[in-house]
Amino acid sequence: MSTVSKLLIVIVFLVVGSVGAMTARQVFVVDESTDIPVPEINGFVLQQPRVLPEFALLDGHARAFARSDFVGAWSLLYFGFTYCPDICPTAMVEMAKLKDLLAASRPDVAVEYYLVSVDPQRDTPERIQEYVTYFDDSFKGLTGDLLEIGKLAQTASVIHVIEPSADGASYEVGHSSTLTLLDPQGNIRAIFKEPLRASALANDIDRVLTYVEHVSNEI
Amino acid sequence: MQKLKITHPDSANRIEKGIVLGWAVLVVIVILVAAALARFIVGDISAQEFVTEEFARNAGASGVNDDQFTFTDAWVRATPPGAITAAAYVDIRNLGNDDVLLAARSDKARHVEIHTTQEQSGMMRMSRLDTLPVPADSVVQLASGGHHLMFIDIPATFVPGESVIVTLVFEKAGARDVLFTVRDAR
Ligand SMILES: [Cu+2]
């Protein structure tokens, strides 16, 4: 074989190889210009939206609240209880500040804010309504059967336990202190961890929203 | 003549420049001296003000201070309607010997416990501490998300601005009455 034909074979291989690689890239890899990385946040961004199971809860007006009631707006869920003296009020205060920050930075995005009770024995609808509106008029409370709450909590990776107390009358509830972000379809998109601070949350949520907007544009 | 005409305003210019430069140097020196003096004086004043302010705050809002203890930032979180518990926070500075906080009491709660919040197995859990060491020459902070005083079974909600006396009982130093202020943390 002449040197020329050897060279030709090499060139053909190179051309076929690069064309193949480019085609494969187009088929399997999203175009880099629209590909944005999963944002790094103080928590987790779910690359696969997590679908909530069906559940039956009550809102602060003792009306039935189901999975479909999350549809139509973004939702932020905090799991806690109204007799919590330290962690929950701090989280509620931060959530109220976060509401103002997001209303300013993302006025086009509708967000609903919820406290989901992990202590339904004491948190009646009236009680939770009174509690959440102390922090912000628009905040919503969810309570109901502990098993039904458990379905929602479990999907949001929230754990909770009633702590035994000496006198039995008053007790505390240990619980994960996270903020769960649902998209307007009611699927979990991100979970934010302690420390839950309004300014950092507003920043992280803004980046998650941008990310989700990009990802859904590509589909 | 022509040369003179040129050099004369030039030399005048030079003299003027010299004067301006001299003044500028003088002004800079004065400014530097003044700044150093001001820093010395104001620094002193602000330190004094800080001490007085802290003292006033302690004497007025946080209760009794003595040779051993300084209590600062003593506050109770205003409670939402219907609350049965409340959390209170304070910085305890111990200028004396090692001591231990044994108990707390107040007539605004059936009992007051020393609590701590810890992240444990993915949960924020509050637990009761039997005692809280307050080592010599240190500040023990009772703050949101950490240690706190827990008012259990409160007969009435805590209204912002209200004052609450809490008796802190130390192992060696004995009891101290500390004045807490109810604060709206919203
Ligand atoms: Cu506590």
Question: Any key phrases for this structure?
Answer:
heterodimer, A: 219 residues, alpha+beta, 2 domains, eight-stranded mixed sheet, two-stranded antiparallel sheet, 5 helices, 10 strands, 24% strand, B: 186 residues, Immunoglobulin-like, ten-stranded mixed sheet, 1 helix, elongated, disordered N terminus, binds copper (II) ion
Protein architecture, described:
The complex is a heterodimer of chains A (219) and B (186). Helix content of chain A is 40%, strand content 24%. Chain A has helices at residues 3-28, 87-105, 125-135, 146-155, 198-218, and strands spanning 43-51, 56-59, 64-66, 74-80, 111-117, 140-143, 160-163, 172-175, 179-182, 187-192. The longest helix of chain A has 26 residues, at 3-28. The termini of chain A are far apart. Residues 26-33 of chain A have low confidence and may be disordered. With 186 residues, chain B is an alpha+beta fold. Chain B has 2 domains: 2-59; 69-183, Immunoglobulin-like (Sandwich), CATH 2.60.40.1890. In chain B, 33% of the residues lie in helices and 40% in strands. Chain B has 1 helix and 10 strands; from the N terminus they run H-E-E-E-E-E-E-E-E-E-E. Chain B has one helix spanning 2-62; strands at 69-77, 85-94, 99-105, 111-120, 123-129, 132-134, 138-142, 147-152, 163-170, 174-183. In chain B, strands 1, 2, 3, 4, 5, 6, 7, 8, 9 and 10 form a 10-stranded mixed β-sheet that branches. The A-B interface holds A 82-83, 85-87, 89-90, 93, 96, 127, 130-131, 134-135, 159-161, 163, 170, 172, 174-177, 194-195 and B 77, 80-87, 115, 117, 119-127, 144-145, 148, 150-153, 185-186. The site of copper (II) ion has 5 residues of chain B, from strand 8.
